[in-house]
Amino acid sequence: MSVHPQPAPEASAPRPAWNLPRLREAAARGEKLAMLTCYDATFARVLDEAGADILLVGDSLGNVIQGESSTLPVTLEQMAYHTRAVAQGKRQAFLITDLPFGTYESSPQQALASAVALMRAGAQMVKLEGGGYTAETVRFLVERGIPVCAHLGLTPQRVHAIGGYRVQGRDDAAAQVLLDDATALAQAGAAFLVLELVPSALARRITQQLPQLMTIGIGAGAGTTGQVLVMHDMLGLTGGAHAKRPRFVRDFTRVPGTPPEAPGLSVPQAVAAYVKAVKDGSFPDEAVHGY
Length: 291
Ligand SMILES: Nc1nc(=O)c2c([nH]1)NC[C@@H]1CN(c3ccc(C(=O)N[C@@H](CCC(=O)O)C(=O)O)cc3)CN21
Ligand SMILES: CC(C)C(=O)C(=O)O
Ligand SMILES: [Mg+2]
Known about the structure:
single chain, alpha/beta, binds 5,10-methenyl-6,7,8-trihydrofolic acid, binds magnesium ion, pantothenate biosynthesis, 3-methyl-2-oxobutanoate hydroxymethyltransferase, EC 2.1.2.11, 3-methyl-2-oxobutanoate hydroxymethyltransferase activity
């Protein structure tokens, strides 16, 4: 009898790269998805290695990279530049890029040309802000092989129309509009829906009523399929005179229960703590981060 040495069980099997079918399967199993914004190759590698499922090249780069006071000045060329950088650094994570202000609103054709530029740069999905009126554009892109993430609630590209960064969908009428918009976007084929600054109960209801949509919350409570934060916010780097930190943010470099002067976690440790907290449902904490 020949004795073949058994291969040692793998300490940690390499995680396969995320793609849209795998994300849908994970969501259907009830796995919470952890998304973070990312703007360059080095952080893409660090966030990916720390377990972030999805990286978003957000137009929030206007705020945190460029120092602008809104996302409106950000251009398509800048989004493509940062998308390429993130695409070079990541391995397993899924990559979504924001269509910036003014590059998709005129027509589905305009949106397609802009989306193509971002997909060429390495995006695996594009994200666009706006209500049911964008459903036609979403369908146009999806039919042409471009996966789409929609974005409802506080849509920062509309800051001057809204008059500030405020909670959306508070009263019954506004909540119904949001639910109708989400339904239209789901029917148009959006795969993901970011819900920003909406009451937790509404985000939970949209998530439960539209199982074909994977919802990603930011200031939307714990009832969504996943969570997203701006990386600089969850590393405790934002704040100061120009950017009051929203209440939905948690600084993951701080260890809960330790004094403020205690040493903080490293970036990889903080990101791993965020991923773990999203997966086990301990972030967000409705009492602290909910609306
Ligand atoms: N660094 C950063 N983080 C973000 O989350 C972010 C950006 N930049 N830039 C684009 C938008 C702007 N965002 C913001 C900005 C401010 C609030 C804010 O101050 N919110 C109040 C809510 C007030 C209310 O109750 O209506 C809060 O205290 O959370 C929220 C989201 C989210 N996005
Ligand atoms: C906060 C997320 C959802 C975003 O759109 C961005 O970072 O631009
Ligand atoms: Mg954005």
